[in-house]
Amino acid sequence: MREVEGKFDLIIIGTGSGGSAAAFKCNKAGWKVAIVDSQPFGGTCALRGCDPKKVLVGAAEMIDGINRMKGKGISSDSSINWPELMAYKRTFTEPVPDNRVKNFQKAGIHVFHGRASFLSEDKIQVGEDVLNGKYILIANGAKPEPLPIEGTEHLTYSDEFLELDELPAKMVFIGGGYISFEFAHIAARAGSEVHIIHRGKRPLENFEPDLVELLMEKSKEIGIHIHLNTEAKSIEKKGSSYIVNGVNNGQQIHWEGDLVLHGAGRIPDLEDMQLEKGNVEREKSGIAVNEFLQSRTNPRVYAAGDAAATEGLPLTPVASMESHVVASNLLKGNHRLPNYKVMPTVVFTLPKLASVGLSEDQAREKGHQIKVNKMETSDWYTYKRTNEKFAMVKVITDEETGKILGAHLISHEADELINHFATAIQFDLAVKDLKQMIYAYPTAASDLGYML
């Protein structure tokens, strides 16, 4: 091992949204900053998550639109050419690592590639290098949660799915979370036979059940097979394919597929970091931090994004917000708190499922007297004109104040509409305030007044 000359003001572990914002902010303030990543620079969202996924979703969206409009002015058939689509996707992801490294270096940020681990409270080892830091920010994201089944060596993971040169004819997804549903909707529209195995009684458990039910109807309509209350027990290789063995109500069930994909959740990527040597306490959901995102046991250490045990959802904008908070607290002393009041989230299936604020159950548990506006909207002009059969909105308001507590939507326009509700919640707008707004017409947003 060799100690890198000079002490860094800040060592950041992770080059995604949770690390980058703090790196540039502290560097601009004149701090000597080092940034470390064991994977290609850029983080999950830009390389292995949100951004490349959205490219694939865009292609599936076009196929879905054509299928919905057949016999209504559209007559030609189209299909996804998977190798061409993947080549197009790589035009977005391949330049990212080199560009990120160049941007860091151009700014004067020192870059190190390798797995980071603690040697002491203020020392980090990266390969043969030892970095000494006044402060350390842990922001290295999450990884797939290990599954307690036999044959996990046969699993394919989300980052590998996003690099498939050929799409398998049959796919089995283990877990009923957003990764499984998003990829299943892409794969089904690209021609694959898809099965989702979920051990719970309903998938996407953090979303409103009635909207999830509608999404499941659409999923089944496009050929996705959903198996609930079903637990995967093992995976076996059989020639060039795989057998997934499972149990449903005591009965043995088997599925054969060319690929078995892990879609059963993610956990903080903190294993093998030797946190105990750095006196950094962790919880199941990440580094144990105080209200300023500072380690409870080592004041030199902060955490942001999926690596931190906070109430923040595992979302890119949340990680970025937390990174800005950490930078402010480092530069000016602990004074700034993260704001989790608004965290809009979207499942990029087709139709999209979006949510912000409180669910109906959460609002009641918190003691609010609530009004629930739940409407099927597929017969509204916005959705009828493109033959959307699966559209619904559910808005929860406080009867006493008239303020919006939560909004939940399913439609092809849900991802954009949810941001209007997020703005309303963030700035404490009441229903009467939104109803006064004039929107361009005809647009999806012009329906907002009728949803309240």
Describe this entry's structure for a reader.
The chain is of the alpha/beta class and 452 residues long. 31% of the residues lie in helices and 27% in strands. The protein contains 14 helices and 24 strands. Strands 1, 2, 3, 4, 5, 6, 7 and 19 form an eight-stranded mixed β-sheet that branches. Strand 6 (123-126) and strand 7 form a beta hairpin. Helix 1 (17-28) packs parallel to helix 9, helix 3 packs antiparallel against helix 4 and helix 3 packs across helix 7. It is globular and about 70 Å long.
State Rg: 23 Å
- Beta-strand content estimate: 25-35%
Tally of DSSP β-strands: 24
The termini sit apart by 63 Å
Overall mean confidence score, pLDDT: 96
* Largest sheet geometry: 8 strands, mixed
What is the percent of helical residues? 25-40%
The chain-level structural class is alpha/beta
Uncertain segments: none
Helical segment tally? 14
Categorize the overall geometry. globular
